[in-house]
Amino acid sequence: MGEPVILEAVRTPIGKRNGALRAYRPDALYAKVLDALLERTGIDPGLIGDVVTGCVTQVGEQGANVGRLGVLLSRLPKEVPAVSLNRMCGSSQQAVHFAAQAIAAGDVDFAIAGGVESMTRVPMFSDIGGGFHTLNPELGKRYELVHQGESAERIAERYGFCREELDEWGYLSHKRAARATEVGLLSAQNLHLERLDAEGRPFLLTRDEGVRPDVDYEKMLALKPVFRENGVVTAGNSSQISDGAAALLLGDREKALALGLRPRARFLARVVVAGDPTLQLLEVIPAAKKALERAGLSLRDVDVIEVNEAFASVVLAFLRELGADPEKVNPNGGAIAHGHPLGATGAVLMTKLLYELERTGGEFGLQVMCIGHGQATATVIQRL
Prior knowledge:
Blueprint: E1 4-11, E2 15-16, H1 26-41, E3 50-54, H2 66-73, E4 82-85, H3 91-105, E5 110-118, H4 137-142, H5 148-159, H6 163-182, E6 193-196, E7 202-205, H7 217-222, E8 242-252, H8 253-258, E9 265-274, H9 284-295, E10 304-307, H10 312-322, H11 335-338, H12 345-360, E11 364-371, E12 375-383
Parallel strand pairs: 3-4, 3-5, 10-11
Antiparallel strand pairs: 1-8, 1-9, 2-8, 5-8, 6-7, 9-12, 11-12
Helix pairs in contact: 1-2, 3-12, 5-10
């Protein structure tokens, strides 16, 4: 049986909806990060045993197995298989898990795990006709199915989080992301892309488009609630609708070393949990606990934590319940600042986690993501 390790990770800068990546078809954008992995590692493309791809809204340009279409547009041989999966926001984190499991089982020696989402070209919910009204009516009789934004409101109510607390976290996310961008902490992980601006002039996209270096806290406080008339969840303390892609090269440790490839991290735990489909976003808490227990670690042992910032109330609940050090959580900002291209975000966060561990000399990293309908994924890695 093999020992799966992370050999390389790369992502595109995350584009705003209708922003710099708007002209990229999702399969073509995904092909960019696949090719970047090959270029950065020099691995023989024919050694890749599978490409596992997360994508949430698999319809239109993201239908017909978008992962396989990305392979066919890339430098990978046509003989390399691919599959696309949907575990909603945790899709590409799950892709990493499945690829690692295939290597651990001895089914493949090398695999690529990644994700892609163009929320500009394939709007969220377009795979279900635009909303929950197309779901089986029997589901509504068993469970109260609500928008994740309403769940975020209920989480804020449960923990007594006020509007100011949520906005403070959103403000901090932008400030951290802006600082990391300004000093170049994210440059190595980002694939630079040639694009055209709104006037048709060429430019090189090197940074996440949604980050606001000049974020104004007072203006954030003035934003209107989105999901309730007197609510606390706003666009300023929620993740941005975005476009992006990311991918990681995984391989068996011994086989990688034999080829002269450097293992950068190994997996200590890979878990998925499920629970309440109404509050739906709090499963990050049991997921993190289960992953840490499986890894034989306490939260104090973990050097870097990436919690997907779907909504600020989710991160604050995580901090409250687990007593995590806020300085270790999303140290370079999160999805509130850089955006949340649904199917790609899991691989984006894993890429960020790996690079931050290497930059700081940390050993253990935890990634956890809330998922619609009450699931969560969590991963613990150890830098090598």
